[in-house]
Amino acid sequence: MTQPRKFISVSGGLPGEKTKELLRRREQAVAAGVGNNFPLFVESAKGALLHDVDGNTFLDFAGGIGTVNAGHCPPEVVDAVKRQADLFLHTCFHVGMYEPYVALAEKLAELTPGSFPKKAVLLNSGAEAVENAVKIARKFSGKAGIVSFTRGFHGRTLMGMSLTSKVKPYKYKMGPFAPATYKAPFPYSYMRPESMSEEEYGQFCVRQFEDFLLTEAAPEELAAVIMEPVQGEGGFNVPPKSFVKGIYDICKQNGILFIADEIQTGFGRTGTMFASKYFGIEPDLITISKSLAAGLPISAVVGRADIMDAPNPGELGGTYGGNPLGCVAALAVIKQMEKDDLSGRSEVIGERIRSRCTSLQAQYPAIGDVRGLGAMCAVEFVEPDTGKPAKTLVAGIVRACYEKGVIILTAGVHANIIRFLTPLVITDDELQEGLDIIAEAIAEVHQTAGANSR
Ligand SMILES: Cc1ncc(COP(=O)(O)O)c(C=O)c1O
Fold first, then answer.
1. What is the CATH number of domain 17-66+342-449?
2. Helix (H, G, I), strand (E, B), or coil: what is residue 33?
3. Cα–Cα separations (whole angstroms), residue 6 to 45, 204, 244
4. Per-residue pLDDT reduced to its tens digit, 380-424
5. Is the CB of 146 under 6 A from ligand 1?
6. CATH code reported for the domain at 75-339
7. Is any ligand 1 atom within 6 A of the Cβ of residue 262?
8. What range does the record give for the signal peptide (predicted)?
């Protein structure tokens, strides 16, 4: 039964008339390759709510794909951006330097795991941070090989695509890809043999990595391993601690740099400022973006000072890298995250989501797995009889959520996983309303599909 809504307001059928008109224009003017998850045109956004051009209000469980952990338009961030906009918009850091760039580099060095001296370079996007981390690692080590992992995602540039491990839609017919890039197996705990404990499975996967170093690429050829401590696009796969620590130790023993891609896991999403802390590792380099600046385009590579200093002046950077609006926004976001302990809040949100979804799992055999770290939670749907990925069911649930006013995304190579990326400022009541709607959507789609519920 549909409950009355406190926050969501959707009326007159979706998409609304103004949205339909914009969709027509979008179709004519915007390249088809730019994918859209929903027919949604946003007019304004605040906290965890999105208001569309037709006057509908949605709860945002996608958070700009993990970009607004601090919420939409946090007042202090908006004020900082406005103040900066009145001063200057752009000089290019290579031409006219500015204090917020330096302050942000200092702050990131302080916040990221690792007790050694650190330095940073600021860039524009996640993919650009990955590109630069690879450049820096190669320059420092004098080696070319870069290892990434199955089901990993690192962006849409040439190196990003080369390191990414989902063919459609990210790589299909876009090759050839960058040479000297290799994929090693990443754990998928949901599919682990029943006879193995989580930690045993982690150790098993470490042994697979040891084999990989014999069969695919020798350590002497490898500049770096790049790993998402919890995989994002790949399905919110939380690897066993023994795996992450095991790979990190192998890297240390063999002179291979360890790059943590914390673009999706960073800034409180997993319950700590950076997921590397949870796994007990101190990466040589960390790539950061997304929730760093509440949606302004900025990213960073932060790491060991001696490694970061390997490239010579002029070999890193770019016209817009570390733009002043992004820097002041990032400094304001970090202040807010620390003041409001948004990492702690992430734990609470994550527990609520997992507990609600676990009780749904008892009801619906199609829910194969509920997993996550902090508020980086996901639910994997499978066909109850065969265990095969239930992509169509998930597409139906996501669509039903949208029609009821909740924006939520899928993940995984089969797109059979629903992932939660709610802003961490979401209130308990908003979260509750969103979870109620997701439960309704699951019930309805099961009913329509005639799928089993217990
Ligand atoms: C782990 C990870 N790395 C890299 C990227 C690429 O970031 P961007 O889309 O800003 O280029 C993403 C984006 O989703 C990501 O999740």
1. 3.90.1150.10
2. coil
3. 17, 48, 42
4. 999 999 999 999 999 999 999 999 999 999 999 999 999 999 999
5. no
6. 3.40.640.10
7. no
8. none
